[in-house]
Every structure is written in structure tokens, then in C-alpha cells.
């Protein structure tokens, strides 16, 4: 089995104080992808940066306190790549990938947007340059007999079933028609939405809830954290679960880990 978890930690140092390390210690995952680390590797304590039994690869943002992605793996990677060849985003802390036996695993933090602002323009530029890279990554991996798994916070809810209040969010970033169409393009380019494939007829399961109001208690969330896999690996997915905290007080991020088990 290959077990992979992905979670936006909403600041790794803060998460570590609230339960992240205990969760990691109890996890059966072989690979853990992190987003929104928000710290330079040198700012992390040894137990957070290099947990016992894990190999950590970090890609911080050049903007202090922003973004940042990481991948932890039980097996040491044979190679590492930061960024995907778009100069604007090379040091933005939004993409890192590692090579493991038979699979390339990446951690992605796609920019969040805000309609009518530069943030949305940045998100649009990222999407425009990232999709061609995904296609080329899949093609190159296939030549070497590898599958590809891109985990992370994609900041887009693909379908109505992926957010509670879809009717009131149709003009909001994260659920804009063209963003959803872009996700469809991803899923028609040789990649698969693993969680949705395993849970085709359910609402959610949501992976992010606002800290405002009663969003968590009312399960008024969004499913924006995905495991996106090439065909061969997706076919091996056996179970997928969102590790939602039992109570609001037990949360260590506004996101919950999304964990998938793949058979050999």
C-alpha cells in the first residue's frame, strides 16, 4: 500500500503548537504534502523540520510569511524539483515535487484569488502556465514508467457538490465558471480526481471551513484540497477520507488532511 496525506497547515509553526505533530506521529502515511507552511526551513524547530522517520523537502516563498509548500516522505527521494518552469512562480513557494520509486509526488498551493483584483490575475496566470506543465509531467513520467500524484490546495471547488453554499458563490473566486472549466481541463488531460472517483454521489467531503461564524459546526465547507493522479495510480485508489477534527477546538488548521490509500 501507498498512503498519501495532503493538508494546508495554515502556518506550520502554529499548527505544530495545536496538534500537527501529534497527528503526524499517529499517521500511517508514507507521504505527507503540506501547503501554506509560511516559514523558512531555518525558522522551524528540529522536530518540526525533520520529524523522526521522515525526509523533508521544503520550498519556501521569497515573500516572508507567505505560501510555502513541503513534502515529507518515509523513503528518501531520488530527486527534487522546486517550481514548474514559470519564472514568475519559481520562488513563490507554490510547487515542489519529489521522485519516489514508481511515482512522482507533488505538493501544490494554487493561488487564491479575489475577483477584480491583481490576486485574481495572478491566479489566472498560474493556471495558464501550470496546465501545460501537468501535461508534460505526465508524458515524461510515463516514458520512465512512473505515475504522477499532485496533492494540495487547488483553491477551486470543481462541482456544486464541492461546496455547501454554491448558489451564492457563483461569482466568487474559487467557484467561477472558467475556474471550474479549467479543473475540468485538468481532469481531461490524463489526470483524475481521486476522492471524487471514490465518493461519486456525495456532497463534499469538505476539506476547508472558514474560521468565521459556525462554518465548521454546520459543516458549511468547501472541497478544495485534492489528490490528482494519473490513470494507473488512480485505478489503485482503495479508500479516501477527510480527517475532520471531532470538534472545533481540536482543529489545528482551517483545512483537514485528505488521506488516500493506494494498493500496490
UniProtKB/TrEMBL annotation:
<feature type="active site" description="Proton acceptor">
    <location>
        <position position="255"/>
    </location>
</feature>
<keyword id="KW-0464">Manganese</keyword>
<dbReference type="GO" id="GO:0046872">
    <property type="term" value="F:metal ion binding"/>
</dbReference>
<dbReference type="InterPro" id="IPR037493">
    <property type="entry name" value="ExoIII-like"/>
</dbReference>
<feature type="site" description="Important for catalytic activity">
    <location>
        <position position="225"/>
    </location>
</feature>
<dbReference type="Pfam" id="PF03372">
    <property type="entry name" value="Exo_endo_phos"/>
</dbReference>
<feature type="binding site">
    <location>
        <position position="153"/>
    </location>
    <ligand>
        <name>Mg(2+)</name>
    </ligand>
</feature>
<feature type="binding site">
    <location>
        <position position="36"/>
    </location>
    <ligand>
        <name>Mg(2+)</name>
    </ligand>
</feature>
<feature type="active site" description="Proton donor/acceptor">
    <location>
        <position position="153"/>
    </location>
</feature>
<feature type="binding site">
    <location>
        <position position="254"/>
    </location>
    <ligand>
        <name>Mg(2+)</name>
    </ligand>
</feature>
<dbReference type="GO" id="GO:0008311">
    <property type="term" value="F:double-stranded DNA 3'-5' DNA exonuclease activity"/>
</dbReference>
<feature type="site" description="Interaction with DNA substrate">
    <location>
        <position position="255"/>
    </location>
</feature>
<dbReference type="InterPro" id="IPR005135">
    <property type="entry name" value="Endo/exonuclease/phosphatase"/>
</dbReference>
<dbReference type="InterPro" id="IPR036691">
    <property type="entry name" value="Endo/exonu/phosph_ase_sf"/>
</dbReference>
<comment type="similarity">
    <text>Belongs to the DNA repair enzymes AP/ExoA family.</text>
</comment>
<feature type="binding site">
    <location>
        <position position="8"/>
    </location>
    <ligand>
        <name>Mg(2+)</name>
    </ligand>
</feature>
<keyword id="KW-0479">Metal-binding</keyword>
<feature type="site" description="Transition state stabilizer">
    <location>
        <position position="155"/>
    </location>
</feature>
<protein>
    <submittedName>
        <fullName>Exodeoxyribonuclease III</fullName>
        <ecNumber>3.1.11.2</ecNumber>
    </submittedName>
</protein>
<feature type="binding site">
    <location>
        <position position="155"/>
    </location>
    <ligand>
        <name>Mg(2+)</name>
    </ligand>
</feature>
<feature type="domain" description="Endonuclease/exonuclease/phosphatase">
    <location>
        <begin position="6"/>
        <end position="255"/>
    </location>
</feature>
<keyword id="KW-0378">Hydrolase</keyword>
<feature type="binding site">
    <location>
        <position position="255"/>
    </location>
    <ligand>
        <name>Mg(2+)</name>
    </ligand>
</feature>
<dbReference type="InterPro" id="IPR004808">
    <property type="entry name" value="AP_endonuc_1"/>
</dbReference>
<dbReference type="GO" id="GO:0006281">
    <property type="term" value="P:DNA repair"/>
</dbReference>
<feature type="active site">
    <location>
        <position position="109"/>
    </location>
</feature>
<keyword id="KW-0460">Magnesium</keyword>
Amino acid at each position: 500500500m501507498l498512503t498519501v496525506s495532503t493538508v494546508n497547515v495554515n502556518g506550520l509553526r502554529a499548527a505544530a503548537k495545536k496538534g500537527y505533530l501529534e497527528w503526524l506521529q499517529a499517521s500511517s502515511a508514507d507521504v505527507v504534502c503540506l501547503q501554506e507552511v509560511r516559514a523558512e526551513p531555518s525558522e522551524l524547530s528540529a522536530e518540526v523540520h525533520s520529524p523522526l522517520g521522515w525526509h523533508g523537502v521544503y520550498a519556501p516563498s521569497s515573500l516572508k510569511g507567505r505560501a510555502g509548500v513541503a513534502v515529507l516522505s518515509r523513503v528518501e527521494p531520488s530527486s527534487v524539483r522546486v517550481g514548474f518552469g514559470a519564472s514568475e512562480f519559481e520562488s513563490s513557494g507554490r510547487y515542489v515535487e519529489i521522485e519516489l520509486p514508481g511515482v512522482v509526488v507533488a505538493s501544490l498551493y494554487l493561488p487564491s484569488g479575489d475577483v477584480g483584483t491583481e490576486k485574481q490575475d495572478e491566479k489566472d496566470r498560474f493556471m495558464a502556465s501550470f496546465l501545460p506543465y501537468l501535461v508534460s509531467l505526465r508524458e515524461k513520467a510515463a516514458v520512465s514508467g512512473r505515475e504522477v500524484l499532485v496533492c494540495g490546495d487547488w483553491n477551486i471547488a470543481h462541482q456544486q457538490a464541492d461546496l455547501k453554499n454554491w448558489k451564492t458563490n457563483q461569482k466568487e473566486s474559487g467557484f467561477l465558471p472558467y475556474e471550474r472549466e479549467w479543473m475540468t481541463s485538468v481532469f481531461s488531460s490524463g489526470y483524475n480526481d481521486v476522492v471524487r472517483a471514490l465518493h461519486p454521489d456525495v456532497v463534499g467531503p469538505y476539506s476547508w471551513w472558514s474560521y468565521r461564524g459556525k462554518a465548521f459546526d454546520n459543516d458549511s465547507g468547501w472541497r478544495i484540497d485534492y489528490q490528482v493522479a494519473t490513470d494507473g495510480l488512480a485505478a489503485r485508489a482503495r479508500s479516501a477520507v477527510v480527517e475532520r477534527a471531532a470538534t472545533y477546538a481540536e482543529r489545528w488548521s482551517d483545512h483537514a488532511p485528505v488521506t488516500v490509500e493506494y494498493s500496490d
